[in-house]
Design a protein that fits this description.
Blueprint: H1 2-19, E1 22-27, E2 32-39, E3 42-58, E4 66-77, H2 81-88, E5 100-111, E6 114-123, E7 126-136, E8 149-159, E9 175-186
Antiparallel strand pairs: 1-3, 1-9, 2-3, 2-9, 3-4, 4-5, 5-6, 6-7, 7-8, 8-9
Length: 189
């Protein structure tokens, strides 16, 4: 009995150490992520405010990694006052009823220093598929320990119409492009 208990305890310790090989990172809350959109064919830049995020990176098996982010629409900007008021209004993001944009990953692949993240975004209460590309600034797959910081470029695009956030569509383009350099920091528990 004593031998069986020790064997079981050893197995559980071994399993627990292998099961949790992911390291938790976050984009610092309050970070502003750049996005671009077009008005009458002219590009403009806005900023989404990161409320919270989590990127659990499994260095041994990157496909087991998980990514989620929440953007606070009320603290975001379309670049200038009139455009911001329109973006936050009911015909676009409706920030009074839907103050948070959410994204969570459903599938992650890592190839040649690039994460391809498939996931579900909820914008204006509507959830649909979005694909995000994350280009690492350095190779983390060969790390023997979790780095304290990871720099990457995030690249994604989505259709405003897909989320019924297409107010002013006669002058504002349908495509929103999110592209920015981001710093992940190890999450403090």
């Amino acid at each position: 009995m004593f031998y069986t208990s020790r064997l079981l305890l050893g197995f559980l310790i071994c399993f627990a150490s292998n099961a949790h090989s992911a390291s938790d990172y976050e984009i610092a809350p309050g970070t502003l992520l750049d996005f671009t959109y077009k008005i009458a064919g002219v590009s403009f830049q806005g900023k989404f405010f990161v409320a919270q995020s989590k990127f659990s990176i499994d260095f041994k098996r990157p496909e087991n990694s998980v990514f989620s982010v929440e953007l606070d629409t009320k603290k975001s900007s379309a670049g200038f006052y009139l455009a911001t008021q329109a973006m936050l209004g009911s015909s676009v993001l409706d920030s009074q009823k839907h103050p948070i944009i959410k994204f969570f990953s459903t599938d992650i692949n890592l190839k040649d220093g690039q994460f391809q993240i498939h996931g579900r975004a909820t914008i204006k209460g509507i959830t649909d598929h979005i694909e995000i590309f994350v280009y690492l600034k350095e190779d983390i797959t060969k790390s023997t320990h979790s780095p304290q910081e990871i720099q990457f470029l995030i690249d994604a695009a989505f259709s405003r119409k897909l989320f019924k956030a297409n107010g002013y569509e006669t002058i504002v383009g349908d495509r929103i492009e999110l592209k920015d350099d981001v710093l992940l920091i190890i999450k403090k528990n």
